[in-house]
Amino acid sequence: VDDAELAERKKQWKPRKPSITTGYLAKYASMATSADTGAILKWD
Fold first, then answer.
1. Distance (Å, rounded) from C-alpha 24 to C-alpha 18?
2. Nearest to 30 by CA among 19, 41, 38
3. Is 12:5 a contact under the CB 8 Å cutoff?
4. CA 15, CA 31: separation in Å to the nearest integer?
5. What is d(CA 4, CA 40) in angstroms, rounded to the nearest whole number?
6. Per-position b or e across 11-23, b if 16+ CB within 10 A of its CB
7. Which helix (H) or strand (E) holds 4?
8. CA torsion angle for 17, 20, 24, 30 (degrees, to 10)?
9. Is 36 exposed, middle or buried (CB count within 10 Å of its CB: 0-12, 13-18, 19+)?
10. What is the pLDDT of residue 18?
């Protein structure tokens, strides 16, 4: 994929809204780091 195509895709990309917005799972999803950083909870 060339740079122009990547730029166009990036311009049109919109993040998805979370499907779970309440409860413990929503809190975990908003506070947990990614797996490559240890999947720990950030309390900040």
1. 14
2. 41
3. no
4. 17
5. 37
6. eeeeeeeeeeeee
7. helix 3-12
8. -10
9. exposed
10. 83
**Whole-structure pTM value:** 0.49
pLDDT tens digits in sequence order for the chain, 44 residues long: 899 999 999 999 999 988 899 999 999 888 999 999 998 998 87
Closest CA to 44 of 35, 33, 22, 36: 33
Cβ atoms of 40 and 32 within 8 Å: the answer is yes
CB 41 within 8 A of CB 32: yes
